[in-house]
UniProtKB/TrEMBL annotation, chain A:
Keywords: 2Fe-2S, Iron, Iron-sulfur, Metal-binding, Oxidoreductase. It comes from Streptomyces fructofermentans. PANTHER family: OXIDOREDUCTASE WITH IRON-SULFUR SUBUNIT, XANTHINE DEHYDROGENASE IRON-SULFUR-BINDING SUBUNIT XDHC-RELATED. This is Oxidoreductase. Residues 1-78 form the 2Fe-2S ferredoxin-type domain. Pfam families: Fer2 (PF00111), Fer2_2 (PF01799). GO terms for molecular function: 2 iron, 2 sulfur cluster binding; metal ion binding; oxidoreductase activity.
From TrEMBL, chain B:
Residues 1-169 form the FAD-binding PCMH-type domain. The keyword Cell cycle does not apply. This is Carbon monoxide dehydrogenase. The lineage of its organism: Bacteria, Bacillati, Actinomycetota, Actinomycetes, Kitasatosporales. Keywords: FAD, Flavoprotein, Oxidoreductase. SUPFAM superfamilies: CO dehydrogenase flavoprotein C-terminal domain-like, FAD-binding/transporter-associated domain-like.
TrEMBL record, chain C:
It comes from Streptomyces fructofermentans. One of its GO terms (molecular function) is oxidoreductase activity. This is Oxidoreductase. Residues 1-41, 454-479 are annotated as: Disordered. InterPro entries: Ald_Oxase/Xan_DH_a/b (IPR000674), Ald_Oxase/Xan_DH_a/b_sf (IPR036856), Ald_Oxase/xanthine_DH-like (IPR016208), AldOxase/xan_DH_MoCoBD1 (IPR008274), AldOxase/xan_DH_MoCoBD2 (IPR046867), AldOxase/xan_DH_Mopterin-bd_sf (IPR037165). Residues 48-155 form the Aldehyde oxidase/xanthine dehydrogenase a/b hammerhead domain. It comes from the Bacteria.
């Protein structure tokens, strides 16, 4: 079957999708967006967390056919998403009644190929220094919250969404919001530090 | 495999009538795991996400009509006043990501004894609204669970909504798992006080082939509360009454040993939860415990 | 079942494999040397989702591999029929044992006892029997399901009794490995006794003797990135393999002979590794992917799902440990006897080394001159067990620390003071006869961890009532404070660093300095597997410190450079860090040589002074600048590739266990504070404080991260993690993240860390390997705290609610 949906503000079309494929599989294997991770494929680890119409979900538990016409944000689009939110005064793109940010771009007719090239190669010789990051991404690096990094994309999407809802979380709030994201390397302490850091920096800006 | 994407409830029913083997999928919590791990290869997947009304709820006089796909997050956030037990149960479901997608319809459709919503529904009192092209009917929750992962649905029927009685008194819900979050119930217990009818209802999860009520315990407690005039005098429930209630709740279990826990532990834990939830709800009913509400969560 | 064919998976287009690893360059930091908390060079790639893990690899026209695994633990294979699977549209190959290309059909880390594909027999649940390549993973799964295998089940060996009974079934009938000569039974992989002093005489001096029988459950590494990789057939008949592993060259040594290829035709590149913890020390999908790629002439990707991952790698050895300790009434340890039985499962993997560690570290960090020790690993039909963080030492620490508490109580001493009184220190002789010849601040670590302020009581109380998130049971709302009792427990442990017992434990580094863009730049190339620990960060720091340049590039790890050894045994910063340091020193010498040649006549200091490279310049130790590196190099480049070794070790004597077996020891101590709902048996760990000696913290941020991560893996095995194997069928009962539980962020406490830096003069920068020690003492500290809260004995781990409520 064919599935049309929007990913990180760009229209995407996936063809020849087997009906049993998950959104996670389509993102990773068909759209060249492997940032969402395949750690458990049973909704237990959160490493595949994406936002589906703004809501954090496990993309491994969303059937590909269910995303027809819907809007997905993955870790690859998180920096843009946060930037647009900041530009709109703290609202998520499309969430404050303004024009959906994907509208204009979709008309540009971004090809699947272009979108793939844009997405996940990361094959230049740099580490990405100078890459524009969202505050939560920067905080994860600064706080040492990244070790193997496999849980990181899902945690970033979940943490970013929590800070959007709750800019001044308590530690218990952070733990509750991230309780669906397993990490095996860090013992979570530096993840806590990172979220606190992002919240504090966010507070300074406002 | 075919993927059916009906745009309305009528189309859903028509599709189900045409393809009775079609497996409905909404939050995907159960179905997608079965597909991802090759446990199940349905001929047809019937997507319910496009039917907007399934994600809506209406608060009526007596009950809340909760669309089958209303996510647990919405129950937690919006219905803690009307459905406190179910809201507490919803908060124990898996993770925030799962709660954002999964709804009570999925729990009822799968009818696993470990489904988190069941004890709360049993305790509150509910009816399941099911429908097929042949028509609609309401199944009382007490008649809904028919066996391990079996329910009272006919092959062509689908769950449209569940009508849950609005709370007329305090409700509580507890679940034991070996982890502090994101855990499938080792066992669970729901309790609702119904001052209007001067009754207490219970629900037990994961401690019998189906979710069950502890009827003997309820009858004992109803009688004890009645005899002692507790509903009127608001006295503290005597420890011996609470103890016997707990024992009868434990006795209502018919658990198994499995990787999540022993039968003996399940029986024990249900007793402890029964006593504690009775204490919490009763203290709340007496109005002496203004601090019974949990911070940052529902109660 | 839909009969409709499934379209091939590859809808993308492109040429070379997508997701090949990238060089990591950090140039903006002008400092960033040893001792600073520089940030990870791969951090940005990892937070943007662009870092390519092995499961992210993609190649045009690639196929998907699928493994058919045994549904039973022990059986003869009567027949295999692959015809129906092969007939499926989209299936390119189905291979069994009979299709293996050479006579080398087994592999293994030390003993080559593991069949690439089962031959006539399966020895454990989940053993690979056949492999399939198809153009979509679902097609491959369907094809695998159509392979018909007839099994004739055999009796299973599941424990010591069934392994060593007179009529025991032999797991391996015709052993010819180098251990078979000294083991008492062919179902014992390896046995290591250690005898020192006179236990009988020492026992006479004991005023108190305590005995204990302890059980340690089977833990899974549960790394999040599943086993995966991509094999691409090459025009020269070889294969390029992109894979997540802990040791490229060890893989290569095992893969090439099975493929019938010389090692230079199997070119391995490390893909992004999503954690390892020992679970990637053995091969998983490597050979299978290569076989399928070479057979089909197409790139083949294999990605395990979580279910398969539980069968796809070895686990931590479960163990039964029997201990006897004695003490005098003034609290001095007199003697120790122990017997440690580890279950190695169906194949040897790292079992011999685990036995060596368990035996040699079974006394813990204590002075004990009279000991009688026996450790052994069984062959059984349980899942194979091998490397996991702290192996051998973890199991022993759980038991000897429980013994210490029991003894302290008998003597009537404070449990921490009892440990401190008996703590080893520099100069203590280990039971192996090996003196501890670097700092061993065991008593100090205990003092520090005890001195940390305790967390406040009843933190769950707030003005609005109980916050269940901070109570046992968490969001499940099981207590609002009822029956919640606090407990505190302490533990300390000792772990060896590096490969022991005479292993030639070396690493190789290639370092190059040149001028690019008008500034001196350094490139570091090693085969070290970065699995998340931060080796890439440290290598750049070492290069900056040694060579005084800002910009350092870390090349992807591959087999085009010499072996770096394994990312395990807490050894990489020591050994590959040492190799990088050594190579940098050699580069520096060459650079200075060039400088002397070019500029030596202009300044006498070139000949007389101690010269350093700092800030891109050659400077004297007095700080005088002699020349810029740009001018010295002037278009030349300097490159060195060199192996580096730590001081040699020797094997333990097979009868007495004597020998200089270990190169370095690592110590950590924990204090655990728990709150237990004693009625429901639910545990909330409130705090896990750790003090550890790290010798020298090359990157303090990473050091603390390692300690915290290791601590929580220890917490996991204390209260929730266990692979449950059916004792009758030897089948795994919980191979999923639904039923194998690892700690969530709501299960983890705050983890204050006190880092001590006492240099080990034998090691580069004085550093001490750090990764494993925190996993040792965390578990017994939590258990001790739970015992303290409940008053229960608790001789097994993990402790489950039924153990705390008498309902097991």
């Amino acid at each position: 079957m064919r599935v049309n949906f929007t990913v990180n503000g760009r229209r995407q079309e996936a063809d020849d999708v087997w009906e049993g494929e998950s959104l996670l599989y389509v993102l990773r294997e068909r759209l060249g967006l492997p940032g969402s991770k395949n750690a458990c494929e049973q909704g237990e680890c959160g490493s595949c967390t994406v936002r589906l119409d703004g809501v954090p979900v496990c993309s491994c538990l969303v059937a590909a056919g269910q995303v027809e016409g819907r809007e997905v944000v993955t870790v690859e689009g998180l920096a843009d998403y946060a930037k647009q939110r900041a530009a709109q005064g703290g609202c998520a793109p499309g969430a404050c009644g303004g024009p959906s940010p994907d509208g204009a771009r979709a008309e540009d007719g971004t090809s699947v190929r272009d979108a793939q090239d844009w997405s996940a190669r990361g094959t230049d010789s740099q580490t990405g220094e100078g890459t524009e990051l969202s505050p939560i991404q920067q905080a994860f690096i600064d706080a040492g919250a990244v070790q193997c990094g496999f849980c990181t994309p899902g945690l970033l999407v979940a943490a970013d969404e929590m800070l959007e809802r709750n800019p001044t979380p308590t530690d218990a709030d952070i733990r509750e919001a991230l309780s669906g994201n397993l990490c095996r390397c860090t013992g979570y302490e530096k993840i806590m530090d990172a979220v606190r850091l992002a919240a504090a920096r966010q507070g300074e800006v406002v | 495999m075919d993927f059916l994407r009906p745009a309305s409830w009528e189309e859903v029913l028509a599709a189900k009538a045409e393809h009775p083997t079609a497996v409905p999928i909404a939050g995907g919590t159960d179905v997608m795991v079965e597909i991802n791990f090759d446990h199940r290869r349905p001929e047809y997947l019937l997507d319910l996400n496009r039917v907007g009304e399934l994600g809506e709820w209406e608060v009526g006089e007596e009950s809340v009509r909760l669309g089958a796909s209303v996510p647990y997050t919405a129950v937690m956030e919006n219905l803690r006043g009307e459905l406190p037990g179910l809201a507490l149960a919803s908060h124990t479901v898996a993770s925030p990501q799962i709660r954002n997608r999964g709804g009570v319809g999925g729990n009822l459709g799968t009818a696993s004894p470990a489904g988190d919503a069941h004890p709360a529904l049993l305790a509150a009192g509910a009816e399941v609204e099911v429908e097929s092209v042949r028509g609609s009917r309401l199944i009382p929750i007490d008649d809904f669970y028919t066996g391990v992962k079996r329910n009272a649905l006919a092959a062509d029927e689908l769950i449209r909504a569940v009508h849950v009685r609005k709370a007329d008194g305090p409700q509580q819900y507890s679940k034991v798992g070996t982890r502090n979050a994101m855990v499938i119930a080792v066992c669970a217990f729901g309790l609702a006080l119904h001052p209007d009818t001067r009754t207490v209802r219970t629900g037990i999860g994961s401690a019998a082939p189906t979710p069950v009520r502890a009827r003997t315990a309820e009858e004992f407690l109803n009688a004890a509360l009645d005899e002692g005039g507790f509903w009127d005098n608001g006295r503290i429930i005597t420890p011996s009454v609470a103890k016997q209630f707990a024992e009868l709740c434990a006795a209502a279990c018919n658990p198994i040993d499995d990787v999540r826990g022993t039968a003996s532990y399940r029986r024990h834990a249900v007793g402890v939860m029964a006593r504690r939830t009775l204490t919490w709800t009763w203290e709340s009913y007496r109005g002496t415990d203004g601090r019974a509400h949990r911070k940052g969560s529902v109660a | 079942m839909s009969a409709k064919p499934i379209p091939a998976a590859s809808a993308r287009q492109g040429g070379a494999p997508v997701g090949t690893p990238t060089k990591l360059t950090q140039g903006s930091q002008t400092r960033g040397g040893v001792g600073e908390s520089t940030l990870r060079p791969d951090g940005t790639l990892k937070v943007t989702g662009e870092f390519a893990y092995s499961s992210d690899m993609w190649h045009e026209d690639m196929l998907w591999g699928q493994i058919l695994r045994s549904p039973v633990a022990h059986a003869e294979i009567v027949s295999i029929d692959t015809s129906e699977a092969l007939a499926q549209a989209g299936v390119y190959a189905v291979l069994t044992y009979d299709d293996l290309p050479t006579d080398v059909r087994n592999y293994g880390l030390e003993i080559q006892d593991t069949p690439v594909l089962a031959h006539g027999k399966v020895r454990h649940h989940g053993e690979p029997v056949a492999i399939v390549a198809a153009d979509h993973p679902e097609t491959a799964r369907r094809a695998a399901a159509r392979i018909k295998v007839e099994y004739r089940e055999l009796p299973v060996v599941t424990d010591e009794a069934s392994a060593t009974a007179p009529d025991a079934v032999l797991v391996h009938e015709n052993r010819d490995d180098h251990h078979v000569g000294h083991v008492p039974h062919p179902n014992i992989v390896h046995r290591q006794p250690i005898v020192r002093g006179d236990v009988a005489a020492a026992r006479e001096r004991a005023d108190f003797v305590v005995e204990g029988e302890y059980t340690f459950g089977m833990q899974d590494q549960a790394f999040l990135g599943p086993e995966s990789g991509l094999a691409v057939p090459a025009e020269d008949g070889g294969v390029d393999l992109y894979v997540a592993t802990q040791w490229l060259h060890s893989d290569l040594r095992q893969i090439a002979p099975v493929l019938g290829l010389p090692e230079d035709k199997v070119r391995m590149t490390l893909s992004g590794v999503g954690g390892a913890f020992g679970g990637r020390e053995d091969l998983s999908m490597q050979i299978h992917a290569c076989l399928l790629a070479l057979r089909t002439g197409k790139p083949v990707k294999i990605v395990y799902n979580r279910f398969e991952s539980f069968f796809g790698h070895v686990h931590r050895h479960p163990a039964k440990l029997h201990y006897e300790h004695g003490a005098t009434k003034d609290g001095r340890l007199t003697h120790m006897k122990c017997r440690i039985v580890l279950d190695g499962g169906a194949y040897a993997s790292a079992s011999p080394a685990v036995v060596g560690n368990a035996a040699s570290l079974s006394v813990g960090p204590y002075v004990l001159d009279d000991v009688d020790i026996e450790a052994l690993a069984l062959y059984s039909n349980n899942p194979p067990c091998g490397a996991m963080r702290g192996f051998g030492a973890v199991q022993a620490c759980f038991a000897y620390e429980a013994q210490m508490d029991k003894l302290a109580d008998k003597v009537g001493m404070d449990r921490v003071e009892f440990r401190r009184l008996n703590a080893m220190s520099q100069g203590t002789v280990m039971p192996t006869g090996q003196p501890v010849d670097s700092p061993a601040p065991v008593a100090e670590l205990l003092r520090r961890v005890k001195a940390m302020p305790l967390p406040p009581e009843r933190q769950w109380e707030s003005s609005e009532g109980a916050d269940v998130r901070q109570l046992p049971g968490g969001l499940s709302n099981t207590t609002h404070g009822e029956s919640v009792v606090r407990g505190v427990g302490y533990a300390v442990g000792i772990k060896n660093v590096g490969f022991s017992e005479g292993f030639d434990d070396y690493s190789t580094a290639r370092v190059r300095m040149e001028v690019a863009g008008g500034e001196p730049v350094v490139t570091v190339h090693t085969a070290m597997a970065e699995v998340g620990q931060g080796g890439v960060t440290v290598h750049a720091q070492i290069a900056r410190t040694e060579l005084g340049v800002a910009q350092v590039t870390i090349q992807p790890a591959d087999t085009r450079v010499g072996s770096a050894g394994s990312t395990s045994a807490s050894r990489q910063t020591y050994v590959t860090g040492g190799a990088v340091k050594n190579a940098c020193e050699l580069v520096r010498e060459k650079v200075l040589e060039i400088g002397r040649r070019k500029f030596g006549t202009y300044h006498p200091a070139w000949a007389t002074a101690e010269l350093l490279l700092e800030g891109g310049k050659v400077v004297t130790d007095g700080g005088e600048v002699l020349a810029g590196l740009v001018d010295v190099l002037d278009g030349e480049s300097v490159e060195v590739e060199e192996e580096w070794r730590h001081r040699p070790t020797e094997p333990f004597d097979l009868r007495t266990g004597q020998g200089f077996g270990h190169v370095q020891y690592s110590f950590a101590a924990h204090r655990a504070v728990v709150e237990v709902d004693t009625e429901l048996g639910l545990v909330k760990v409130i705090e896990l404080a750790c003090a550890q000696d790290v010798g020298k913290a090359l990157n303090p941020l990473s050091v603390v991260g390692q300690i915290q991560g290791g601590t929580i893996q220890g917490l996991g095995i204390a209260v929730m993690e266990e692979i449950i194997v059916d004792p009758v069928t030897a089948k795994v009962r919980n191979p999923s993240f639904t039923d194998y539980l690892i700690p969530t962020i709501l299960d983890t406490p705050t983890i204050p860390v006190d880092v001590l830096e006492l240099a080990d003069d034998h090691a580069p920068y004085g550093l001490r390997g750090i990764g494993e020690a925190p996993t040792l003492s965390s578990t017994p500290a939590v258990l001790a705290a739970i015992r303290n809260a409940t008053g229960l004995r608790l001789d097994r781990t993990p402790v489950r609610p039924e153990h705390l409520t008498g309902t097991a």
